[in-house]
Amino acid sequence: MTDETFSVWAPHRERVRLAIGSDRYEMTRDDRGWWHAEVRGAADTDFAFVLDGEGIDYAFLLDDEETPLPDPRSRWQPAGVHGPSRRYDHGAFAWTDTGWTGRPLAGGVIYELHVGTFTEQGTFDAAIERLDHLVELGVDFVEVQPVNAFDGTAGWGYDGVAWGAVHDPYGGPTAFKRFVDACHGRGMGVLLDVVYNHLGPSGAYLDRFGPYFAGSTIWGPTLNLDGPDSAEVRRYVIDNALDWLRHYHLDGLRLDAVHALTDRGATHLLEELARETDALSAGLRRPLHLIAESDLNDPKLVTSRDAGGFGLEAQWCDDLHHALHVALTGETDGYYADFGQPGALLTTLRGAYFHAGTWSSFRRRTHGRPIDPSRHSGHRFLIYLQNHDQIGNRAQGDRMTATISTKRMLCGAAIMLCSPYTPMLFMGEEWAASSPWQFFASFEDEELAAAVRNGRRKEFAEHGWGESEVPDPMDPATVKRSTLRWSELDEPGHRAVYDTYRQLIALRRAHPELADPRLDEFQVEGRDSYLVLSRGQRRLVVNLGTEEAKVLLDLQPGEPLLASAAAEVTGTHVTVPAESFVLF
């Protein structure tokens, strides 16, 4: 006989039934608002919708409603977010990474990718075939954009609604495990982007079961983290995070837009999550990393709990991106405005935050708080020239090299990869990919699709873009345009960019001072259009101007380790051609 136990939290419902095929089973409520049912059968095949022994398809009926709803804590949604949930046995996968001991974040290089557009096939298995490219490049961590189930087949993943179920068009849960296992086999850790600050607009049935929601943002409904019955909602988030780390052998999570998490409790959800993640890390005997996306410019997030912080390991640092972007492109619109001030890049490279208790013209208020370079390690702040947001939130999703030359972008790459911060590359950046990264979705509901399409056009019309200039996010051609063209690696110009990225990363490993995260040991000086980064006994000289720069170094330079153009060395003077760099 086979016994299957099903549970669901629905504290304010009078009746909950389990639906398996056409069969209905009454569930029993406990004193915490959880409903349970145990179903017995002669064998797995007695259950309806069992496919090749993979699992049982099931759903729930609330009160006297007759429309089945998927499990809020589903592990698998093979029929989409509106269909029944399917049981999934995590113990059935044969892992081969038993010797994997993880990777420290300090000194590492992260590579962000979107499974659906990383390859033409858009699956985990197809992505595995490209992992050797990342190994050759020198990547330490692969950061995967959200893979939890969302409505439709194609999308960025930030409109997910089934947080524990792997998006089936990518290959489903077993394929994701194969991907993680393959990364570990090649010596790379895997970070997963997760979204707890909101749910997508289609398929978010949580509020039908209980008081999960507390409000909304421009992105969708937000969670009840500090109101009545919030304990189980908080548990929902923490259990989901721990499940990804434990059952999928992940090395860390990137937490989307944590500034949108509203929690007025004495112990913030992020601190509670960090505490439990550290406990799991000790049990698994390998490091687990929590990396926040936050626009708060508050070092408390990455300050240890012993020192009164939340205890997250790191955060995305948009100020570093904005300062580099303005220095390289000259764009000063919108939130880039303040970063056009003289010395903005120097200030930000020295202290991670440009807005550190200073006036933000974009926000029209004082913003941020300074870090302490003697206490805060640079590895806790991610630096990037491009990422999915900064490219995809442009009207046409154009990459940096659609605006500037590749030689100028390589100057930015040298700064990023020789800084004390944790560098992150966005897929295709390493060869100056020509494919844009445009916003796309595939909602089947026509009204919702039209609302997303029109909202996108209206948003950019306010910034002067014409309707015809904004790609239709519902058009499959938008997805195709955003898919990497791997054949470009065979073209000399793209290959030259790739070779420079690969050499810069290799030098980080060969010369540890280039990856030294100590901010109080880091010096950066500049004048007009050039920068000099001091990394121990090494110097990186970058000329972002349009004329050659003659720079006096305080140490006798030796033979260049790497130069993007021929540099002339005379005594302690180095003459660097326009828009180039030299690393000694």
From TrEMBL:
Keywords: Carbohydrate metabolism, Cytoplasm, Glycosidase, Hydrolase
Top-level taxon of origin: Bacteria
Coiled coil: none
Assigned EC number: 3.2.1.141
Active-site feature positions: 256, 293
UniProt pathway annotation: Glycan biosynthesis; trehalose biosynthesis
Localization (cell): Cytoplasm
Biological process, per Gene Ontology: trehalose biosynthetic process
Pfam families: Alpha-amylase, DUF3459
This protein's record includes keyword Translocase: no
Reaction catalyzed: hydrolysis of (1->4)-alpha-D-glucosidic linkage in 4-alpha-D-[(1->4)-alpha-D-glucanosyl]n trehalose to yield trehalose and (1->4)-alpha-D-glucan
Matching InterPro entries: DUF3459, GH, GH13_cat_dom, Ig-like_fold, Ig_E-set, Trehalose_TreZ, Trehalose_TreZ_E-set_sf
Residues the record marks as site: Transition state stabilizer: 389
Positions bound to substrate: 254-259, 318-322, 388-393
SUPFAM superfamilies, A to Z: (Trans)glycosidases, E set domains
Primary localization class, coarse: cytoplasm
Cellular component terms per the entry's GO annotation: cytoplasm
Enzyme class: hydrolase
Domain Glycosyl hydrolase family 13 catalytic: 112-456
Transferase found in the keyword field: no
GO molecular function: 4-alpha-D-(1->4)-alpha-D-glucanotrehalose trehalohydrolase activity
Sequence similarity: Belongs to the glycosyl hydrolase 13 family.
NCBIfam families: trehalose_TreZ
Protein name: Malto-oligosyltrehalose trehalohydrolase
Species in which this protein is naturally found: Actinophytocola xanthii
Lineage summary: Bacteria, Bacillati, Actinomycetota, Actinomycetes, Pseudonocardiales
